[in-house]
Model the fold of this input.
Amino acid sequence: MNDNQNPGGTGGLNPDDFEAFMRQFLSGDNPIDPEQLAEAAGLPKDPAAMAAMLDQIKQVISSLQAQGGTFTSGERGVNWELASSQAKALARSGSLTISGEARKQISDAVAIGTLWLNEATTIPELIGEPKLLSRELWVADAMPLFQALSEPVANRMSEALSENLTQNAPEEIQEILGNASGVMKSAGGALFAMQLGQALGKLSHEVLTGGDIGLPLFKDQRAAFVAQNLEAFVNGLEIERDQAYIYLVIREMAHVRLFKHSKWLRDAVVSQISKYASEISIDNSRITEIAEDFDPEHPDELRAALQSGAFIADRTEDQAAALNSIETLLALIEGWVDVVTEEATRRMPRAAAVAEAVRRRRATGGPAELTFGALVGLELRPRKLREAASMWREIGTAVGIEKRDDLWNHPDVLPSATDIENPTALISKLREDGKHPDAFDQALRDLLDK
Done:
């Protein structure tokens, strides 16, 4: 007997052979008997023991197979195709074609809203028709951004899950799973992908517009409306439909105008969030705790921990500072949009009622939005929103909308968190155009005044 054989009379474990076996097993293409598992793993050919082991492995990953996950030799980390297919499948559930009434209401609101926005902001109007999206199309448009934002934490979560589940598996199969680490990592990635896909799929039933959750989905800025959701929201307001549509359409167009004008803004938002996500660490003690008690027949605890963000470690001081910067930027954006929308709809009798409905909806956030926030460790709703809106309102009243809107021309002149808390110094600077008169200029003004 050579060194690669074990006392049970079978050949030694070959990692490549076993990984190929696992891929075949996970794909479900062909039935695999216990003796085949024993031969691939280099274990004794005990049919009863192998049958029990095979059943245990199958239970661990059966929920992933049921969701359409596939595993290939080159696949590592998160299965983004699975996430996308999950999200689109959920988005299609209950999806309706865009009604003629909704098309007309949105079209009429765009025509009116464009004129009213021109009075409320100096940022140029949009060129091109808005996009009317189905829920599935919203998922397709949103997926690239959500993937970019969640990929850093997703990959670390996948690695940590595979390591801990392998280490805490029954002793007799630890070596097997360890030698199929690539496949197990893919299984962990598939679990994260399923959760992300479900969160996005459910979110597609909640979002009203392209900018509804405060993130810039599109590189090519266009107003976008998830018409089915928008129509359902308007119908539930008990407010005149035309006024509700006008208000919500103006909000979206203001959001898009801002990002289209300030071309640096989208990159600033995405890069700040991506950097924050890249520094998130995983709480291995929590994963170990779950893995030690993991019951393959009842994977709900693992799913619930993943959905709640329980595996994400507490923030460091640097992360807290980074999060504060993100919240400040998102608050500046949403606060400006609120104020401009308020000014653009001032002649509309029920504007305040629609605004209050939007505030209530934004304050709570939907369950899918909360799930996504937990997955990436980031709340999407800025806490400084009211203060930021108040600051923009004060600036506009004090120095006019042109100087207010000019603050979006470059990131270096954008108000800070300190300005949000106390805009007095910023307003004073804007009144002086950022310049302080020298002694000669001041003497000349005093002479002319006399």
In short: Residues 25 and 32 are 7 Å apart (CA to CA). The longest strand covers residues 131-133. The chain is about 65% helix and 0% strand.
